[in-house]
Amino acid sequence: MTTATPLGDTTFFSLNMTTRGEDFLYKSSGAIVAGVVVVVIIIFTVVLILLKMYNRKMRTRRELEPKGPKPTAPSAVGPNNNGSQHPATVTFSPVDVHVETR
User: Fold this and answer.
1) Where is the composition biased (Polar residues) (predicted)?
2) pLDDT for position 64
């Protein structure tokens, strides 16, 4: 006659394995977080260095390129030409309106 093995041992064994796996995850979670933080810092540093290099390259290119002629404002040849480069402005002043009261 064969005897049946109790199911409680099997459940205890799988529960024990799950606890060991979870224990390993809990113990290694600090290392995982530290690794993620290090990777994020490295990526941030690389992006910062690339942006600084790009900025320096663009600045030197901007400084070395020949300056084109600046666009000049059309000169006014009319009677209001007094030699200044300021555009003519029109100023409206409010009209005094007197209302008679009775």
Assistant:
1) 78-92
2) 86
- pTM, two decimals, is 0.43
Give the span between the Cα atoms of 34 and 17, in whole angstroms: 26
Checking if the pLDDT of 57 tops 90, the result is yes
Decide: 70 and 85 in contact? Cβ < 8 Å. no
The residue type found at 3 is T
Distance CA 87, CA 7 (A): 97
- The CA distance from 30 to 26, in Å, is 8
DSSP class per residue in the chain: ---PPPHHHHHHHHHHHHHHHHHHHHHHHHHHHHHHHHHHHHHHHHHHHHHHHHHHHHHHHHHHSPPPPPPPPPPP-STT--S--PPP-----PPP------
Question: Taking a C-beta distance cutoff of 8 angstroms, is the pair 81, 75 a contact?
Answer: yes
Reported as a single tens digit per residue, the pLDDT across 5-17 is 555 555 544 555 5
